[in-house]
């Protein structure tokens, strides 16, 4: 039985979808004004693991991940680069798609862009006003009236007074309460705008996600997620807006991931301390980054250092060593390994424990290798199958071991051929010299009955 930790109730709960066998899941997407960093990768790899595991457990998942393609930061960036907002967003959406594909993230079933849902946002704001939960402020912008919504604070588990003292909220004359947040912002000169009953302007960030999620998943749906910085105010505000408009519960389960940090600081674009996904993938296999991000539980903070990437590569190398030289086979069925893997993942997607089960399985393969080749191959197929649920172990082991080599493979193959020739001529000194030359380039060679193979060892 799958249990998920729900931020709303602060408990692990048995997961029960609204419709048997079907799940609607919305994850807040990227604001596209720069390249995605590995903090983003953490949140979206976690979402990808949740998605893959739900599908593995037989659910039909409708996965929605939006794109925020209009916002103050995007407008600022466009002004800096003297480009049109659309040119900026187009460039970074393309880069995001490239990075996410390289990371092996499953495509969302819907990828709504905020600018394509303006009419739905306007209708939603009209409903909120009609229900008495929003007002036009002194400056003409439309604000949500937090004090009119009795449940405000239900997700972050604070009341309005606590939230007010803890948050950096601007006090202005135009709002009734400092926590009131904007639903519709009137356009300033030279800003993109859409017509609305309140004048030309653009939507606030929070209303975007309420409108897009309800349009694509219905007013009441199963899972809503994102990084934990979104709990307050973004998700708190989404709940307030949506429930004020529909008088129905919005999302049942709220999943929030821990932050990726650099030396105890949050990695973020605004702090300027970020490492992009593409920088990491220039030097490392995508699975190495995925592994690093899954090796801690999704809710705990994760401190990144370049060394953690090397450790992840070594961990993956243990799996690929177990998979090496195994013939194709049907996977071993009804094993205690599969049961333990499911038990771990059913417990709020506990990937560190699930990976430790896979290490035991890899160990078992090595034990069986000499004794029972068929059983080793069947367990190898199981290891791949369960690894694939987490989006890893998708490579050919030989390709994995050769990845990252800084020397051209034809040069390596030529040196190996020269060494084999020297050995053939019993010129052991020359053969040894070549082996050392390769070792100096971090290339380790292995001789077996079927010939010589090589690996790149960092
Ligand atoms: P943004 O593009 O800043 O709106 O962020 C998109 C998503 O990435 C949100 O769910 C954030 O919570 C998440 N995110 C941003 N920075 C980090 C980080 N350092 N670690 C984990 N998730 C992050
Ligand atoms: Zn959102």
From TrEMBL:
PANTHER family: CYSTEINE--TRNA LIGASE, CYTOPLASMIC, CYSTEINYL-TRNA SYNTHETASE. Residues 340-401 form the Cysteinyl-tRNA synthetase class Ia DALR domain. A motif ('HIGH' region) lies at residues 30-40. Monomer. InterPro entries: Cys-tRNA-ligase, Cys-tRNA-synt_Ia_DALR, Cys-tRNA/MSH_ligase, CysS_C, Rossmann-like_a/b/a_fold, tRNA-synt_1_cat_dom, tRNAsynth_Ia_anticodon-bd. Binds 1 zinc ion per subunit. It catalyses: tRNA(Cys) + L-cysteine + ATP = L-cysteinyl-tRNA(Cys) + AMP + diphosphate. It comes from Aquicella lusitana. Belongs to the class-I aminoacyl-tRNA synthetase family. This is Cysteine--tRNA ligase. NCBIfam families: cysS. It is found in: Cytoplasm. A motif ('KMSKS' region) lies at residues 266-270. Gene3D superfamilies: Cysteine-tRNA ligase, C-terminal anti-codon recognition domain, HUPs. Zn(2+) binds at residues 28, 209, 234, 238. One of its GO terms (molecular function) is zinc ion binding. ATP binds at residue 269. Coiled coil: none annotated. SMART domains: DALR_2. Pfam families: CysS_C (PF23493), DALR_2 (PF09190), tRNA-synt_1e (PF01406). GO terms for cellular component: cytosol. Its cofactor is Zn(2+). GO terms for biological process: cysteinyl-tRNA aminoacylation. Its EC number is 6.1.1.16. Keywords: Aminoacyl-tRNA synthetase, ATP-binding, Cytoplasm, Ligase, Metal-binding, Nucleotide-binding, Protein biosynthesis, Zinc.
